[in-house]
Every structure is written in C-alpha cells, then in structure tokens.
Write a structure and sequence with these properties.
Lmo0937-like; single chain; 45 residues; mainly alpha; transmembrane; membrane; 2 helices; Lmo0937 family membrane protein
Length: 45
C-alpha cells in the first residue's frame, strides 16, 4: 500500500515536470514525500 502511494506520487511529479505545470513547490514536495516513503519501506523490511 505504502509503495503504491509512493509510485503514484512519483508519477504525478513526472507529469508535473513534463507538462511544466507546477503549483509553487507542491510538485517537489510530492517528490520528497515519495522518496521518504520508499526509503521507509526499504529500511522497514
């Protein structure tokens, strides 16, 4: 579940970069959250 959310956030971030549609730093915050989720998932194994 956590991994799925992280992947969705990464996809949204990439789409934000491709379309150049950014709401301030919101897209980059999504990237940071996704990376943190993946790291927590990997460390928690």
């Amino acid at each position: 579940m956590l991994y799925t959310i992280a992947v969705v956030l990464l996809i949204l971030w990439v789409l934000g970069l491709v379309t150049s549609y950014t709401i301030g730093g919101f897209i980059h915050i999504l990237l940071v959250v996704a990376i943190v989720m993946v790291l927590v998932r990997l460390i928690g194994r």
